């Protein structure tokens, strides 16, 4: 259980922060940038949820929880030492990726195939989900960049890759099952 009785600690005043294993690193390190962007994605998703209801809101709530799992995973380097840890180390697992894939397939079977690129927008929920999609892609790029420097859980990278696809399909669903998608018209304003 987490207990936060004091919010500021002053330990980061010199530009460093502690990772999940206690190691101190620069706040601009690749690892902190990756999980910080996952946190940004979670906040962006919170805005999207203001426009969601029912099963869509429940799915977004599950994803928000997964994003905390993902942040916990990314803030813990040294995967080979997981067994030695005093506390259980939380890692993303393939089942979380599988769930996203199943949900994408279930939503996508209700949509007509795209014959044009679509512009982000339409309904308020769709616009927010497109924003989530782009932040998710950035988080994925930063996590892949981190993986070129240090070991990263493969399931974490796969989760982010599927998640941006999930947001894309969910954004289409939020536009009346794709009927209200805003289509790109190449060269329309020349």
From TrEMBL:
| A GO biological-process term | cobalamin biosynthetic process
Q: Which residues cross the membrane?
A: none
State the family named in the UniProt similarity comment for this chain.
Belongs to the Cob(I)alamin adenosyltransferase family.
The UniProt entry's coiled-coil ranges are none
Q: Which organism is it from?
A: Roseovarius tolerans
Matching entries from NCBIfam families are given as: PduO_Nterm
What InterPro entries does the record tag this protein with?
CblAdoTrfase-like, CblAdoTrfase-like_sf, PduO-typ
The record's PANTHER family line, in alphabetical order, gives: CORRINOID ADENOSYLTRANSFERASE (PTHR12213), CORRINOID ADENOSYLTRANSFERASE MMAB (PTHR12213:SF0)
Of the GO CC terms on this record, one is: cytoplasm
Q: What is this protein called?
A: Corrinoid adenosyltransferase
Catalytic activity of the protein:
2 cob(II)yrinate a,c diamide + reduced [electron-transfer flavoprotein] + 2 ATP = 2 adenosylcob(III)yrinate a,c-diamide + 2 triphosphate + oxidized [electron-transfer flavoprotein] + 3 H(+); 2 cob(II)alamin + reduced [electron-transfer flavoprotein] + 2 ATP = 2 adenosylcob(III)alamin + 2 triphosphate + oxidized [electron-transfer flavoprotein] + 3 H(+)
Question: Where found in the cell?
Answer: Cytoplasm
- Keyword Cytoplasm listed: yes
């Amino acid at each position: 259980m987490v207990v936060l009785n004091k919010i500021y600690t002053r330990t980061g005043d010199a530009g460093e922060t502690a990772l999940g294993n206690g190691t101190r690193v620069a706040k601009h390190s690749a690892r902190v940038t990756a999980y910080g962007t996952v946190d940004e994605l979670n906040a962006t998703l919170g805005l999207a949820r203001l426009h969601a209801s029912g099963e869509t809101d429940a799915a977004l709530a599950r994803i928000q929880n997964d994003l905390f799992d993902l942040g916990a995973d990314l803030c813990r380097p040294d995967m080979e030492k997981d067994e030695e840890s005093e506390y259980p180390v939380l890692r993303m697992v393939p089942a979380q990726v599988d769930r996203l894939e199943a949900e994408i397939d279930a939503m996508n079977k209700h949509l007509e195939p795209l014959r044009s690129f679509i512009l982000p927008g339409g309904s308020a929920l769709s616009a927010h989900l497109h924003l989530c999609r782009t932040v998710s892609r950035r988080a994925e790029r930063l996590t892949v960049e981190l993986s070129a420097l240090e070991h990263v859980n493969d399931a974490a990278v796969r989760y982010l890759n599927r998640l941006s696809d999930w947001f894309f399909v969910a954004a289409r669903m939020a536009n009346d099952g794709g009927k209200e998608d805003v289509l790109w018209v190449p060269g329309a304003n020349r």
